[in-house]
Design the sequence.
């Protein structure tokens, strides 16, 4: 069974703590007020003040000329790839990066762009030599290597700015453009304690999700230079992503940018607490990266542990062998206590 099939919740207990993903976050009352009071217009006519404000706010925060609001991260990544590449071009991308492994090969299916997956290092980055080796000669037999697609964070791992720079530098030396899937860009910035502009400098375009740890119900923003964003507007239209009174969603994004970024550190702190408790139990391998914990129970405990947690209203993905546990703003200290208690009671009785 694939990881997405294993994410669907099938238990009957009401949910106390949902650790499956940070995409499950729901708007709080203050964000709902911001949505209800949003000033809106027709965004396809470029007349929605909230969308315009969100786009320019995100671009300014990342030191880029322009921004563009999308319904999803998948569409934002795809519109960026289409803005950088033509049919017959190729993208070098980490083989475990979302763009390659979890976006249904949209660039190939819809835009005639091939994806060249390359191995990543233990820290999530692509080694500069791997990039250099993957760049194809200019030969009529080969696809034209055009773009390097990076990701940060990767499986929760925050890749340091110098490693991002090293990857980007090889691409630039060889005339490639660089796109960064920064779905959790602000988790990376928080963990690395760096300036967002410093991290954004490694890429020509960056896609940032508002609907994960930042807590908005939907939406991503693509930032880059004005010419690229202009092409991305057309691509968004082609992909059916031109929304009308999108300001209701943009208002949630603006609220998240202004109020929720600093809370990401709380998610990282809670992930460390959960991971350390699991380490203390000494019942399986534990890795902690930003807001994610990866726990590998012994195979015979996998299914009964998941059932035990589900019975207590604790939702966890049932990926195997390693279970991903994601901390986010809808899991407070009390909910986390309950989850930790769930793990402890399972292993006490096991
Ligand atoms: C790293 C990464 N990139 C892109 C996406 C795509 O975002 P969306 O679900 O909004 O299409 C996700 C979603 O989980 C993601 O984790």
Sequence:
């Amino acid at each position: 069974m694939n990881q997405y099939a294993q994410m669907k919740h099938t238990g009957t207990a009401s949910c106390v703590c949902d650790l499956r993903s940070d995409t499950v976050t729901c708007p709080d009352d203050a964000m709902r007020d911001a949505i209800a009071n949003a000033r809106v217009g027709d965004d396809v006519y470029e007349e929605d003040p909230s969308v315009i404000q969100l786009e320019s706010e995100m671009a300014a925060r990342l030191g880029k000329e322009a921004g563009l609001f999308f319904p999803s991260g998948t569409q934002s990544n795809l519109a960026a790839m289409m803005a950088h590449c033509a049919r017959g071009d190729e993208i070098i991308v980490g083989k475990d990066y979302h763009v390659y492994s979890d976006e249904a090969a949209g660039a190939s299916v819809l835009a005639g762009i091939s994806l060249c997956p390359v191995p990543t290092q233990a820290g999530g980055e692509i080694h500069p030599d791997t990039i250099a080796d993957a760049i194809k000669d200019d030969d009529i037999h080969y696809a034209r290597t055009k773009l390097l697609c990076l990701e940060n964070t990767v499986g929760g791992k925050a890749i340091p700015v110098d490693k991002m720079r090293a990857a980007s530098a090889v691409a630039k030396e060889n005339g490639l453009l660089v796109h960064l899937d920064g779905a959790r860009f602000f988790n990376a910035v928080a963990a690395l304690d760096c300036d967002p502009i410093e991290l954004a400098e490694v890429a020509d375009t960056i896609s940032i999700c508002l609907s994960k740890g930042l807590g908005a119900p939907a939406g991503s923003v693509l930032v880059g230079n004005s010419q690229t964003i202009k092409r991305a507007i057309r691509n968004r239209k082609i992909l059916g992503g031109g929304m009308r009174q999108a300001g209701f969603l943009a208002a949630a994004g603006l609220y998240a940018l202004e109020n929720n970024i600093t809370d990401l550190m709380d998610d990282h702190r809670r992930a460390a607490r959960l991971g350390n408790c699991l380490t203390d139990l000494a019942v399986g391998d534990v890795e902690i990266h930003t807001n994610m914990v990866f726990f590998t129970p012994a195979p015979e405990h996998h299914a009964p542990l998941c059932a035990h947690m589900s019975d207590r209203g604790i939702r966890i993905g049932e990926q195997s062998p390693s279970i991903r546990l994601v901390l986010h703003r809808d899991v407070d200290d009390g909910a986390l206590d309950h989850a930790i208690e769930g793990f402890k009671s399972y292993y006490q009785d096991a």
User: Anything to note?
Assistant: The chain has two domains: 5-26+263-349, 38-259. The chain has a mean pLDDT of 96.
